[in-house]
Specification:
The protein has a single domain, classed as 3-Layer(aba) Sandwich (Rossmann fold), CATH 3.40.50. It is 36% helix and 12% strand.
Amino acid sequence: MLDIAGLNAQFEQEAPQDILAWAAETLADRFALVTSFQPSGLVLTHMLGQIAPHAPIITLDTGLLFPETYALMAQYEREYGITIQRVSPAQTVAEQAGTHGDALWARDPDACCGLRKVAPLRQALTGYEAWITGVRRDQSASRRNTPILAWDTRHNNLKLAPLAAWTEDMVWTYIHAYALPYNLLHDQGYASIGCQPCTRAVAPGEDKRAGRWSGQNKVECGIHLPEVTTPSDARTV
């Protein structure tokens, strides 16, 4: 039985490595890291490689990622000896266009993200008792209250955000300290990198997530929207 509220209080005082070590000891092979290879995900990939090197690493390959993102994933597999589980949507981009019309992301980005991210992740996490994410509280207003540990009602498992209390500066300090490869688009003004049609560089002074779904009333792809609770009751894991 897990006391989520008690563990959250404990984890607030612990380093991310300690939280990952707890996950590896408690959950064994029943958890996975989900990352889009943004800075926080790179940090967690590196940390997990030292703590639980055989833990599954899942990424959502929407078929619309930047070439630089695909190159970065290949580099991590090559240099760090990891195997990335690339999860694809049920339809290719061309098949989706045939069913829903061309450029669905421009007309209905929520529907596009639902098809190419939310639904594939739901399927990929079937059978896992927990998933780890790089979400941080400083990333946006919608993430400001992110708990380190929560019960995810969408996937019926635990959601663990070991870097929830970290800042952008802390993440980049870690990346530079360990000379981790990162997406070269960050050096071109891209603060947050998602699918190519829905991502742009941000201007100085803009919010770091202003480059995602620019011009749309949308700030999240959907996989981190709050179908998540932090109940006081214990959960069996």
